[in-house]
TrEMBL record:
Active site: 128 (proton acceptor)
Binding site for Ca(2+): 56, 130, 194-195, 253, 297-298
Disulfide bridge map: 45-392
Stated name of the protein: Arylesterase / paraoxonase
Alphabetically ordered keywords of this record: Calcium, Disulfide bond, Glycoprotein, Hydrolase, Metal-binding, Signal
Cofactor: Ca(2+)
Signal peptide residues on this chain, from the entry's feature table: 1-19
InterPro entries named among the record's database cross-references: 6-blade_b-propeller_TolB-like, Arylesterase, Serum_paraoxonase/arylesterase
Cofactor stoichiometry and binding remark: Binds 2 calcium ions per subunit.
Pfam families for this protein: Arylesterase
Protein source organism: Rhodotorula toruloides (strain NP11)
Lineage, top ranks: Eukaryota, Fungi, Dikarya, Basidiomycota, Pucciniomycotina
GO molecular function: arylesterase activity; metal ion binding
Family named by the database record: Belongs to the paraoxonase family.
């Protein structure tokens, strides 16, 4: 081959390699492949033993410091996390050991909530996400929404059929350790429920994190994901009325009700948070995209109106540790970002949203968090397979 041709081939190869690197670089940065996570605001943290494998902390009452969490155990998480295709249902207890916990941040005490009236066929609750609606007329009255990933009746079919997921609704009073079951919401559109945003005592939005319960494409989702959807449900009647509120949404994970008609949604694989506006027919139209280039999980809205988004800042470490639910001792770094609407602040020169890192830990104090819920100057950090919850005071 002539020397000139060899040079052309070499230049083309280098050009292709450079082009591929330019495409991969943002994804590698998002995944935290080369990221070093340094401690920030993690000097004053205290662990809360006993609150293990709590994927989500729905809500913290700013007056009483009462929080509600949905918790499991790492031994169960090894076998059963439908969102990550842990579908070994035959290894689960016949009746779930998962529970709702009520946690008092002031006394650092917690207790399990007794669930009254849950149908026997449910075999308990199989928890993932949670949200709470507080009655405007009676602030002590709460409606709890959880997504429960029930195993299929024939548990041996779980690897091919996935979970028989539903939304369970309970009512309780602030701080009490008992909740009354109100309704099980089952609908064909409730396929792979991840997170819930309550909009009333019987209405809610819900993110389906995947289009399919089980599908070969899910094994490669970190590289290319099949778009899914956000669902709106009205369960005020005997038969729930659910619609697709927003379609073709890439890995919708944590969602949260914002001010007015706004809904916030983390798009885990895209490294951004979307802002939606709910219409009179409950469909959602896109308003804004907040790019931070992290793999985000849950979102919570503080009393200050800011969003608090939890980053799976080293996603491959998180996935590796999740294979045995952290029982091998692998630790995973955590980051939490605060996102503010700065529309009215002239110093930001027209920027609508700004974000700042408010907490980081390399995994030694806080490992594998999927939630950072704000309370006063503190964060309540919990995780899908974390060995304990942690409360940290911010400077």
């Amino acid at each position: 081959m002539p020397v000139l041709t060899l040079r052309r081939v070499g230049l083309l190869t280098l050009g292709a390699a450079a082009g591929l690197l330019s495409l991969l670089q943002p994804r590698l940065e998002r995944a935290g492949v080369t990221r070093t996570v340094k401690g920030f605001n993690n000097e004053n943290c205290f662990p809360v033993p006993g609150l293990e494998a709590c994927e989500d902390a729905a809500w913290v009452d700013q007056e009483s410091g009462t929080a509600y969490l949905v918790c499991s155990s790492r031994e169960v998480r090894v076998h059963w996390v439908p969102a990550t295709l842990h579908l070994n249902a035959t290894q689960l207890p016949q009746v779930s050991t998962d529970y709702i916990a009520v946690f008092d941040l002031a006394s650092r005490s917690h207790k399990r909530v007794k669930l009254v009236g849950l149908p026997a066929e449910a075999n308990g609750i199989w928890v993932h996400g949670i949200d709470i609606w507080r009655s405007p007329s009676d602030p002590n009255h709460l409606t709890i929404f959880i997504n429960s990933h029930r195993p299929p009746k024939d548990r041996s079919l779980a690897p091919t059929q996935g979970a028989d997921s539903v939304i369970e609704i309970f009512e309780t009073l602030v701080g009490t350790d008992e909740a009354r079951h109100v309704k099980t919401v089952k609908h064909k559109l409730i396929r792979t429920p991840n997170n819930i945003a309550a909009t009333g005592p019987r209405t809610f939005y819900m993110s389906n994190d995947h289009r399919y319960k089980t599908h070969w494409t899910r094994k490669y989702e970190k590289y290319a994901s099949v778009a899914s959807d956000i669902i709106y449900c009205d369960a005020s009647r005997a038969t729930p009325d659910c619609i697709v509120a927003a379609d073709k949404v890439t890995y919708p994970n944590g969602i949260a009700k914002g001010p007015g008609n706004l809904l916030y949604q983390a798009s885990t694989l895209e490294g951004l948070v979307r802002v939606w506006e709910a219409q009179s027919d409950h469909t959602l139209i896109p308003l804004d995209v907040i790019k931070i280039n992290r793999h985000f999980d849950n979102i919570h809205v503080g009393h200050d109106g800011a969003m608090y988004a939890t980053a799976l800042t080293k996603i491959f470490d998180f996935t590796e540790a999740g294979k045995d639910a952290g029982l091998s001792g692998k630790t995973v770094a955590t980051e939490c970002f605060r996102i503010k609407n700065e529309t009215s602040d002239a110093q930001f020169l027209g920027k609508k949203y700004t974000s700042e890192l408010i907490f980081a830990d390399d995994g030694r104090k806080v490992s594998a968090s999927t939630t950072c819920a704000p309370y006063q100057n503190k964060l309540l950090l919990t995780g899908l397979f974390s060995k304990e919850a942690v409360v940290c005071t911010l400077k």
